[in-house]
C-alpha cells in the first residue's frame, strides 16, 4: 500500500470516489470535498432530481458513474478509469421499515454492495490508499449496557440492523486478510437538510408542521436514540479518511455521536420549539423491528481522532428547518415524494 495519510489541508487535487452520493450524507460529503478542491467521482444508481446533489448543481462538478454498487463490473470500471486514492462507501438501503418489508433488497444492497465495493478496492489496491465504510449504531443490536462503546459486541437481529453488522464484519475481514486501509464509522440517527425519507422523524415532523398538520409518530414516542447533524457526520468521515493509515485507526471502527440521547417525543418537541409551533403529535404506536434504547459513546473518536460534536441541537435543527422551508417553498406543499 503506497501513499500517505490525507491531511486536513491535503484534499485539493485528491481523487475521491463516493458511493451513495445522492443520499443525505453523500450529498453533503461531495459538497465538502468539492469545496476542498478534490476531484470527485460519484456512483449513482437512481438520479433523483430532488436529491441535494442534483438540486444544488454539485453533480455537474463531479464525474458520474451510473450503476448499482452490487455490480462488480460497474464498480471496478469506476475505480479503474478514475483511479481514486480515497473511497467513501455510503451506498445502502437505509430505511428500517423498507428492510422489514423487503429484507432481500436490503441484504443485496448493504451486504453484497459492501463486499463488491471492497473486492473492487482489493483489485485496485495499487492506488486505493484509504477506504471509509459507513456502518451504523444499529449493528450493536439491543445491548444491555449503554452507551455503546466500540467494545460492545455486535449483536444485531432485525434485517436492517443485521445488514449493517455484515457491512462492519466484511470490512474488518478485508482489512485483516488483505490489509486494505479501511476505517469504519458507526453513527447514530443522522439528520439534516436533504433527507427526503418523510417516514423519518425529523423531516416528517418538519414537513407536517410547515403544512400546519400534526406530525405522526409511528412508535409510542419513547424510543431513545442519538441524533447527529449531517455536517458533523461529514467531518467525521473526512477525519477518518485523514487518519486511516495510522496503526490505531486502520481496520478499526469508531462511534460518532452528539452525546445527547433523546426520545422521539423530545425530538418532536425540540423541532416544535425551533419552529415556534406546538407540535401536538399523533402517536400511533405502530413501529416494528425497533430497539427501545440505542445511543453511543464517541470518547474513542475524541481521544484518537480529535473529533467531537460541535453542533448544539438547536443549531443543527435551526439549519435543517431552514433547508426544508426553502425546499417545500420551491416544491409546493407536498414537498416531494412521500
TrEMBL record:
Gene3D superfamilies on file: NAD(P)-binding Rossmann-like Domain, UDP-galactose 4-epimerase, domain 1
Domain of life (superkingdom): Bacteria
InterPro entries: Epimerase_deHydtase, NAD(P)-bd_dom_sf
Segments forming domain NAD-dependent epimerase/dehydratase: 16-248
Family membership noted in the UniProt record: Belongs to the NAD(P)-dependent epimerase/dehydratase family.
Name this protein carries in UniProt: GDP-mannose 4,6-dehydratase
